[in-house]
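Here is an idea for our session: we take a single protein and study its fold together. To get us started, please write out a protein record for me. Once you have written the record down, we can walk along the chain together.
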Amino acid sequence: MRSVLRSVPPLTDRLRTAVAAGPFLAVTVAFAGIYAGVSGRLPDPLATHFRYGGQADGFTSVQGFLAESLALFLLLGAVVGFFVQVRPDAPEVPWVIAGGYAIAGSTGYVVCVTLLSNADAADVSAVRVPQWEVYLSLAVALCAGALGRLLAGAAPAAPWRPRGAVSRLDLPAAATAGWSRTVGSPPLAVLGGLLLVVGLLIGLFADWIVSAGLLFGAAVSLPLASIRVTVDRRGLTLAPALLSSHCRFRRIPLDRIEEAGSRHIACFAEFGGWGYRIRAGRSGFVLRSGEGIVVRLTNGREFVVTVDDAATAAALLNTYTDRARSRQGG
């Protein structure tokens, strides 16, 4: 797959937008076609929510189910399309498109199966959806996501930047300073929002046990979508942007830092994705490709975080590290 993707050139902005919208248009057409075929055989209300085991325990009017399903497709398509339009050259766009295909495929499968399961039902309370249909929807999501990633083509090439020099900040001995920046990841925000919406809808229409994994994914993704990076006399601190005064993800004290620098970081090529990443000999918060702080720890490992103005942060961190060593030596 990797060699195939490398041979596919990046798409034009207009074509990429069309590719991103494709799965949502396709599932809308499929849903409308199935409804047209079975509309005369549907009970009203429909069985639209099924507990674990497949028994119906929730019901919705036909018109309500149609409106909710079409609104869901429109909302999901708008979120993915908005990101592609706003940041068409972002290296993460092909993976956002792949996520859109996966979610469109799974949600489209669920609503279409719901319609077909209700067709010709004499007693709506007796309608059942076999549990294997849920697992099949996950397989559909994986296949659709793989197709979307292939159709999205190669990501735009990231501009090459030389490795940043290791430096110190010219700070008077008695003075203190602080540095802080917020870095966000629109793809993670989109992914978290989509997982939340789809998880809630599957919980309402199908089973809360089935949706638990999606809701957990949203709970993990959304706090990681925006973090505040701080460098001060205590070291390097990372905290969720909305809760930075109440909790933190990680703090690296000065006595654990050997040296800090800055360089360009390619999130997928080096770490395989966004979020908190762990690789052999290194780890870090990688929310986008671009400039980042690279901290060499005293245990020989590296910790990185992608953030703007990383060179200034690294220089200040080196200044405080030198001061800490001087105090220990004295």
